[in-house]
Write a structure and sequence with these properties.
heterodimer; A: 214 residues; alpha/beta; 5-stranded parallel β-sheet; 10 helices; 58% helix; 12% strand; B: 562 residues; alpha+beta; 5-stranded mixed β-sheet; 65% helix; elongated
Chain lengths: 214, 562
């Protein structure tokens, strides 16, 4: 087992299970391992209360009356806070486990499971949440920077990452090479990068978010 | 007599032991017992002789011999007959009969037993049991009629030949036939039925049955004594009294089976003959020949129908018991098959508490390893572990009740409680099949009387059918309404699903055995469910709106009304 890293202290695990005894026991186990735990007796309760601001993951029972675990997973994935899901099920049938994993679940545990399995899955989920959050933050900060660019600077940006030289850009935009140099320097500063490699990396992130540049 | 017969059983059951081929030790004891029995029977036959001129009214040794042969395999017959010879000689030579006559009678006695046993064996192989109409008929025709008749010609001829008897040849034949037929009817069934009933039958009988038998035989004895032995009434009213033992004989035939009837008949015969021999009762007064003939005809006329009645009633009772046993077996089998369908849900129901127990225990271990132990938290953990364990135990207990094969036991039941228990058993299945249950249970329902397990089986069957029917529907639309209400002085429980329903005109076909719509179905669930509900005095029927769902309804009468 991994030692208590900085993420356990910060991470919050949301447990959703309709069985009160199971819910309480999982809450205790996760708390005993150092996590902050929120418990929810139904998917509806989870949707109503939310997971809170602390980053983390969701431990989700597959079969519950009313809204099922798979339904909640779907709703969660399209929410602004798409936390990774660890599925638990008292009836490990293959089709639903396949569906759960295809929909992006971190793990699928069949009850009764050992603490090692649960904690390993929760750690993996929190790790995934952490990197996803970093990626999201990076994306949004790059997006914010792009937003500060003037139209002309964006035109320069798209051509720089395409590998054009300043002279070619100037010809395309019908302006002087010196002017392009000024735009390029300002654009690089606004984007917070000091090399072409850094700019291309930021550009890749922007492309992933689907942002459009002229 | 009964002690003989049980030894016969033991002898017949024990296997052959080593020894010379012609010598079978297992038949030594039965043969000795037969010899003693034969001697005593002969003494009894002498005691039942009308004076002054000796006319035998009942000659039991032949019947004893026939019964012995019918119980033994053919290869032991010669042993048994040989064993009877010394007893015959000992008994007869005391009575001053010429030696030639004594030996001739032994020959005719043996011939009767052999003819009877061979004829009966030709139709009924193996040990004869008076447990079916056919067997009883074969015994009556071959053993009790043909054998005495055929051997009596030989007997009378030998008597005439040796010159011991008086009277016409045919008169001698008639007297022999009557005496021997009555003996076959009285003694042989007594031995045969007791051999089959045995000590095991006595041990099995409940104390109530003993009390009943004592009352019956006391009443029969009193009635027989009044009718045939006591000079209480004059000869004109006597024929009416002939019927006095009849109620008791019928009682024996209805309640105590062939063994009780054979015993009761033996009692009546002994009491009647004893009266006649001592010059008492309705049969005395004429010549000895007339007395013997009238009495033998009367007793024969009573014994034959009574024996047949007892055997037929016993056979019918056994058929009813067999049918009930088969129904129970079938019910149990279909229940077990249904539990197979439930296994996924059962795993769910057991895995939940197991998860709670394991996680609680592991959390407790971690808490204990931390520097500060929260005793309150630990106490809560232990409470939850106990609760989870009890829940798992409850799941097992409910299942075991369904697995056990038992007799149908009627007890007061609450319909809503039955519904809730059934829903509890399928709880895991309902969740994993994403079926939402809408219970609409009316309060204040009349109490029912029924077998808890069987009625639960019916409800489980209907719930599982409903789940199965809705398996093709969208998960959100799988809803099962379970409704209970008072109806017609009883309770109606309805199971209403949102499946595809079934086509009009199919609602009776569903209940036919082996009709199924499921790929793995046996097609017995609804058929057995209906037979269970019918056995509770209720009804089970289905209705459907094609495309919008099916409903199945159980009506069960209230406790007092069933």
């Amino acid at each position: 087992m991994r030692g208590k890293g900085r993420f356990e202290v910060q991470a919050c695990v949301s447990v959703v299970d309709d069985d009160a005894l199971v819910l309480r026991s999982l809450g205790r186990l996760l708390r005993s391992a150092g996590f902050t735990v929120n418990t929810y007796p139904s998917p509806q309760a989870f949707l109503a209360q939310g997971a809170g601001d602390t980053p983390g993951c969701v431990v989700l029972d597959l079969s519950m009356p009313g809204l099922s675990g798979l339904d909640l997973q779907k709703a969660l994935a399209s929410s602004p806070d798409p936390r990774p899901v660890v599925f638990i099920s008292a009836r490990g049938d293959v089709p639903s486990s396949v569906a759960a994993m295809k929909a992006g679940a971190v793990d699928f545990l069949t009850k009764p499971f050992d603490q090692e399995q649960l904690l390993a899955a929760v750690h993996a989920a929190i790790e995934r949440d952490r990197s996803a959050r970093i990626a999201r933050e990076e994306r949004s900060s790059i997006g914010e920077r792009v937003a500060t660019l003037t139209p002309r600077e964006r035109e320069v940006l798209s051509r720089v990452v395409d590998g054009r030289l300043n002279k070619q850009i100037a010809a395309e935009l019908g302006t002087a090479e010196k002017t392009v140099k000024v735009h390029r320097a300002r654009m690089m500063r606004k984007m917070g990068v000091d090399s072409l490699a850094g700019l291309v990396r930021a550009w890749t992130v922007i492309r992933q978010t689907g942002a459009q540049l002229p | 007599m009964d002690s003989h017969s049980t030894d016969w059983r033991a002898a017949a059951l024990s296997g052959p032991r080593p020894g010379p081929a012609w010598f079978e030790r297992q038949w030594v004891m039965p043969a000795l017992l037969l010899a003693v029995g034969y001697y005593l029977a002969a003494r009894l036959g002498f005691a039942f002789t009308l004076q002054p001129h000796p006319i035998s009214t009942l000659w039991p040794p032949n019947a004893l011999l026939l019964a012995a042969l019918l119980l033994a395999p053919a290869r032991a017959w010669w042993w048994l007959l040989a064993a009877a010879l010394p007893a015959h000689l000992l008994a007869e030579l005391q009575s001053g009969v010429p030696s030639a006559m004594v030996l001739a009678w032994f020959a005719s006695n043996c011939s009767e037993a052999l003819i009877g046993a061979a004829l009966v064996r030709a139709f009924v192989p193996g040990r004869l049991r008076l447990d079916s109409f056919r067997n009883a008929g074969v015994f009556l025709l071959c053993g009790a009629l043909a054998a005495p008749l055929l051997s009596s010609f030989l007997d009378a001829a030998l008597v005439k030949l040796i010159g011991w008897g008086h009277g016409e040849y045919l008169e001698l034949v008639r007297m022999r036939v009557f005496a021997n037929v009555l003996a076959e009817l009285t003694v042989a069934p007594l031995i045969l039925t007791w051999a089959a009933f045995g000590l095991a039958g006595l041990r099995r009988a409940p104390p109530r049955r003993y009390l009943e038998a004592v009352a019956l035989f006391a009443g029969l004895l009193a009635a027989s004594l009044v009718a045939f032995d006591l000079p209480l009434v004059d000869a004109n009213t006597a024929p009416a009294l002939f019927y006095a033992p009849l109620p008791f004989l019928l009682w024996a035939a209805v309640r105590l089976g062939a063994v009780g009837t054979a015993s009761a008949l033996a009692l009546v015969v002994v009491v009647t003959i004893w009266g006649a021999v001592n010059g008492l009762g309705p049969f005395s007064g004429g010549t000895p020949q007339e007395t013997a003939r009238d009495m033998q005809l009367f007793l024969t006329a009573v014994a034959v129908p009574m024996l047949l009645l007892a055997v037929v009633l016993e056979e019918r009772g056994r058929a009813t018991r067999d049918a009930r046993e088969q129904r129970l077996q079938l019910t149990h089998l279909s229940r077990v098959a249904m539990l197979g369908e439930l296994s996924g849900g059962i795993a769910h129901e057991l895995n939940q508490p197991l998860t709670a127990i394991l996680s609680n225990a592991q959390a407790a271990q971690r808490f204990l390893a931390s520097p500060e132990v929260d005793r309150e938290e630990l106490a809560e953990i232990l409470r939850d572990i106990i609760a989870a364990d009890q829940r798992a135990g409850e799941v097992i207990r409910r299942l075991r009740a369904l697995f056990v094969r038992g007799e149908t036991q009627f007890q007061p039941l609450d319909a809503n409680e039955l519904v809730r228990e059934a829903l509890g058993i399928v709880h895991g299945d309902l969740i994993t099949r994403a079926v939402e249950v809408v219970p609409q249970l009316a309060a204040g329902l009349p109490a029912l009387a029924g077998d808890r397990v069987e009625l639960q089986q019916v409800m489980l069957n209907l719930i599982l059918n409903a789940c199965e029917a809705m398996s093709g529907a969208e998960p959100g639309s799988r809803s099962l309404t379970v409704r209970s209400r008072t109806a017609e002085g009883g309770v109606q429980v309805s199971f209403i699903d949102r499946g595809p329903g079934f086509p009009a005109g199919q609602h009776e076909k569903l209940f036919e055995p082996f009709y199924t719509t499921k790929p793995q179905g046996l097609g017995l669930g609804l058929s057995i469910s209906r037979s269970i509900v019918l056995a509770h005095g209720g009804r089970l029927w289905g209705s459907a709106t094609p495309g919008r769902g099916a409903s199945f309804h159980i009506y069960l009468p209230a406790r007092g009304a069933a």
